[in-house]
Design brief:
The relative contact order is 0.05. About 70% of the residues lie in helices and about 0% in strands. It starts with a helix and ends in a 12-residue tail after the last helix. The protein contains 14 helices and no strands. The chain is elongated and about 135 Å long.
């Protein structure tokens, strides 16, 4: 039932997206991303995931419209692009960011691969227009196209163990610091320009600066996202390999109980002097326990022990009763035995004659 509701929601989202125009689709999708990115609700909640799907559907429809209009070309310069068209450069970046907001664990590998494709499309387009100076990341499978090979001379070098590896790590750390500094600087400039755009008093130059600042800021965001995705992809692929290995590995049969054995200094000593005790045990501890459990003779079962204690107490009570009866009947033999016992105790201390306790 829930799956049918999700399918109907997606169809309704797609139908609503087809009724909007290109600027409205971009504005609505951009607004949805900002709301989802700033919300305090759990990302995996149904409400948030429905809004994420709605935003993805709107931005995908806007991307199809932009492709049909041929808004961007690799043969054009940035100055040739109209100010009103600059904001559509952000479509793949927003699509990738919203795709990463999906929380399906079963489709996590597909999600991160799709988001990486969107981010790389955005970065290549910004590289074609020379909007910002940066190095394109390598492709997910480690291969680069001829155009990217000349641009990625540093990233295409295989890491080696030694001083050059440390230099590469230091360069990567310095690039992260520089990227973070640039991001904060762009955000500060963007907040000042955005106030003028929101007030409706911005001219064409201010609007163009606003969209270019947004594009440059998203370049830094996408570079960080691609780096994070590459690390997650390695983990996800290793997890898939481990899962396949666990499925293919047959279950091991249960081990039989070990037979008792003897430890001696050497085999000759064992043959001459023997083991030091009569024979080996004829059963394991588990067999002994099971045999006594069936007979009900285990202490933790409580039945035999209780019966034995009751029998002992009954015997003592009967013996005391017989002694009392003989004393009451003035049995001479019993009286004489009791008197002799009392006399003996008077002349012999307690424990006399106990040869077992030599202390």
């Amino acid at each position: 039932m829930a799956e049918c509701d999700n399918i109907s929601d997606v169809r309704q989202i797609n139908s609503n997206a087809e009724l909007l125009k290109l600027p409205e689709l971009l504005d609505h999708g951009w607004k949805i991303f900002e709301e989802v990115d700033r919300t305090n609700e759990p990302l995996g909640s149904n409400n948030i995931q429905v809004r994420v799907k709605r935003g993805i559907s709107m931005l995908e429809e806007a991307s199809r419209m932009a492709a049909q209009l041929d808004l961007f070309s690799r043969n054009e310069e940035l100055q040739e692009t109209a100010t009103a068209e600059l904001k559509y450069l952000l479509l793949p970046a927003l699509l990738g960011a919203l795709t990463m907001k999906q929380t399906s664990r079963e489709k996590r590998l597909e999600i991160v691969q799709t988001a990486r494709a969107y981010f790389m499309d955005f970065l290549r387009r910004c590289k074609d227009y020379n909007i910002s100076q940066f190095e394109l990341p390598k492709s997910a499978n480690g291969n680069t196209s001829p155009d990217e090979a000349s641009e990625n001379r540093l990233s295409a070098v295989k890491p080696v163990h030694g001083p050059s590896d440390l230099v590469a790590m230091a360069a990567q750390r310095q690039a992260k610091i520089e990227r973070y500094r640039l991001k904060k600087e762009l955000e500060a400039r963007l907040s000042d320009v955005q106030r003028a755009v929101d007030s409706g008093q911005a001219d064409d130059e201010v609007s163009r600066d606003f969209y270019l600042l947004n594009v440059r800021r998203w370049v830094t965001v996408c570079l960080e996202e691609v780096e994070s995705i590459d690390q997650e992809l390695e983990i996800l692929k290793k997890m898939d390999v481990l899962k396949q290995g666990a499925v293919e590995q047959p279950a091991q049969p249960p081990r039989p109980p070990m037979k008792p054995f003897i430890l001696t200094k050497d085999s000759m000593q064992a043959r001459v002097f023997g083991a030091g005790y009569p024979s080996l045990p004829t059963m394991t501890v588990d067999d002994w326990y099971e045999q006594h459990r069936k007979r009900g003779a285990l202490p933790d079962q409580g039945i035999p022990r209780r019966v034995a204690m009751e029998e002992d107490s009954d015997a003592k009570e009967r013996e005391e009763e017989e002694k009392e009866k003989k004393a009451e009947n003035d049995d001479e033999e019993s009286l004489l035995k009791a008197r002799n016992w009392d006399d003996w105790k008077d002349t012999h201390r307690r424990g006399y004659g106990n040869r077992h306790n030599m202390g």
